[in-house]
Write a structure and sequence with these properties.
heterodimer; A: 122 residues; mainly alpha; Helix Hairpins; 72% helix; elongated; B: 497 residues; two-stranded antiparallel sheet
Chain lengths: 122, 497
């Protein structure tokens, strides 16, 4: 049976690769944004996977627990805290991108990145 | 007074939130923005050097009572030296760089307030959030904390672009966001690899582990983390292949907005650059990679600036190219070169702000940014043109201005480190920068005025002249007395290396 941590790592790698494909090769801006969201979630899943400990316990020290046993068996709490912050940041950037996409659609009547962003702006 | 250290981040955030709530109450927004902006540079001046541990969580080794009550799994291993919470470090570099950042921030806000009849609280919110986020990045000893504030800085920068009147602002903002949304998570994944190897995201802890051989700092995981974090860094600062989008970003904002955007980019460059140096400088190829990307940035940007005809884009490319000097100093990696790079960063912050606002006056007068359609403006704005000329000299490294001092230090450091070829390239690029600047100065101010050129206003705002004047005075003072900042920077770098 495949190890849960390995499976999650493969999953996060797949998320990032699928997201990169969508962000680079798909023309529709909304699809690009979905791809970017995939990359973000892949990175978050990767961090969460680092915290995983097989047969581990929730990292909350309760009365009656032996400190040595807790240290040896609890999951690592730091990545959880990091991911919580990262999700908030990801949601903010997603919201900004969607808002700009709405304005661009109203302005150009299209969501084609080639038409909207592919001109000689840069 | 170490309590003042977090206030450098907290005060702009609180001001931003209040200004956002005030919305369109024009006079209150202007007054509050001005007051907060003028107070901010005072905080780094009066604050003492030291550390600030959030929540009072200093390393366990500093707290013997607590350490003795913990299991041996923690107390007897290096874990006891680790930083439990986020901590800010305030030293000579932070003091000087934040002082000048806040000065540029104040001048950008002052110019914006005076240029616009009505100013929204939301715009000021973005400016203060940008300032607070890069301040947090510079102070923080925690690479994940830096990443979070880097993302906030990106959103603030996009907001500043969107607040301009340029008709391509949405397209540029979307491109910047798409690239940022790739660069950000890749940076995060790199931090994740470091976390997997070290178990901490505190830079001091990571370097402690490396120095004491507690982790394999040549393992594929460690090397991969370098690749990912380096990618995030070059995106964030506009080194190739991101130099074109970065210069586009500068060209789409208002002049004061561009000045601020470049100031934010310089601080991000230095913050991440120092973090990379601290963690990865023992790897033999790191210095070479930094030098390669910095050189590529300088050469490509100056080439683009030479062929470009849009005034704002030219200044944008020059600004991005100048960042390469900082990268070269980091890449050479000696005490002198890093000190010179930090000094160059401070100068870059001031000079590009001067040029963005100075040349912005031309666009305000004529509504034209194509240099082929400009000319003869020295008759309309003689004072501004002379100040801009001196600012350009400072950028190109003409003595006795500040750019000369930092570039001379960089060239000396390259020669001392047996990199004469780098010294030659730096001199050549300075010459090309000088030529490019003279080209645009001649095109805008000196050549005969085209018949169809309409100058809409007879005077530029006094606030812009004041701002450019103050920045020029700083250029001259730092050029004549570089020791005002170099001594502190040398001490800081000595401790760092």
């Amino acid at each position: 049976m495949i190890n849960t941590q390995i499976a999650a790592l493969l999953c996060s790698g797949s998320f990032i690769l699928i997201g990169l494909y969508a962000a680079i090769f798909l023309d529709n801006i909304i699809k690009k944004i979905i791809g970017l969201s995939f990359i973000e979630e892949g990175a978050n899943l990767f961090l969460i996977t680092l915290a995983y400990r097989s047969d581990g316990v929730v990292p909350i020290f309760l009365p009656g627990m032996s400190p040595d046993w807790f240290v040896a068996n609890s999951a690592y709490p730091l990545p959880h805290a990091l991911v919580l912050t990262s999700i908030v940041i990801g949601a903010s950037t997603l919201a900004v991108m969607l808002a700009i996409a709405m304005v661009l659609y109203k302005k150009h009547g299209s969501l084609s990145a080639f038409k909207i962003l592919g001109d000689n702006h840069e | 007074m170490n309590e003042l250290i977090p206030l450098m981040v907290i005060i702009p955030i609180i001001a931003a939130l209040i200004l956002n709530a005030l919305g369109r109450k024009n006079s209150i927004v202007k007054t509050l923005s001005f007051v907060v902006a003028i107070l901010l540079p005072l905080i780094p001046i009066i604050s003492n050097y030291g550390f600030h541990y959030f929540g009072g969580h200093s390393p366990l080794i500093d707290n013997e009572n607590l350490l003795s009550s913990l299991p041996s799994l923690i107390s007897n291993v290096s874990l006891s030296t680790f930083h439990i919470g986020i901590n800010y470090s305030f030293e000579g570099l932070q003091k000087i760089l934040l002082f000048f950042l806040f000065i540029v921030g104040f001048l950008a806000i002052f110019t914006a307030i005076n240029e616009r009849k009505r100013i929204s609280g939301q715009y000021m919110f973005l400016i203060f959030m940008g300032l607070s986020s890069v301040t947090a990045m510079l102070l923080s000893d925690d690479i994940f904390h830096m990443y979070i504030f880097f993302e906030i800085a990106i959103i603030s920068q996009v907001g500043i672009i969107l607040s301009s009147n340029d008709n391509q602002k949405y397209e540029t903002a979307m491109k910047y966001m798409i690239l940022g949304s790739i660069g950000g998570p890749i940076l995060l994944t790199g931090i994740g690899f470091l976390l997997a190897l070290v178990g901490s995201v505190n830079i001091t802890d990571i370097t402690y582990m490396i120095k004491n051989g507690l982790i394999d700092s040549y393992s594929p995981v460690f090397l991969f983390s370098f690749g990912l974090i380096f990618f995030g860094w070059i995106y964030s600062v506009g080194l190739p292949p991101f130099h074109t989008i970065k210069s586009a970003v500068y060209s789409k904002a208002t002049p004061s907005g561009s000045a601020l955007l470049q100031a934010l980019s310089v601080v991000i460059f230095i913050s991440f650059g120092l973090a990379i140096l601290r963690i990865y400088s023992h790897l033999p190829f790191v210095h070479g990679i930094i030098i390669f990307f910095s050189l590529a940035g300088m050469i490509l940007s100056i080439t683009m600036a030479l062929i470009e005809t849009d005034l704002r884009r030219i200044i944008g490319f020059l600004a991005v190219g100048e960042l390469g000097y900082i990268g070269l100093g980091f890449g050479i990696g000696t005490n002198l070169s890093i000190t010179a790079a930090l000094f160059q960063g401070i100068n870059e912050l001031i000079i590009t702000a001067l040029l963005f606002i100075g040349f912005g006056a031309i666009i305000q007068l004529t509504k034209i940014s194509n240099i082929t359609k400009l000319g003869g403006l020295i008759e309309n704005i003689p004072k501004m043109s002379i100040m801009v000329l001196l600012g350009g000299f400072a950028m190109a490294g003409v003595p006795p201005l500040n750019g000369f001092q930092s570039k001379l230090m960089l060239i000396q450091s390259a020669l001392n480190a047996n990199f004469p070829e780098l010294a030659i390239i730096m001199i050549l690029i300075s010459i090309v920068t000088f030529m490019t600047f003279i080209k645009i100065f001649h095109a805008a101010y000196l050549k005969p005025k085209p018949k169809d050129l309409i100058v809409e206003k007879s005077l530029v705002p006094r606030s812009a002249i004041f701002t450019v004047g103050v920045l020029l005075i700083i250029c001259i003072v730092l050029g004549l007395m570089p020791d005002l900042v170099v001594k502190e920077l040398t001490t800081f770098v000595g401790g760092l290396i």
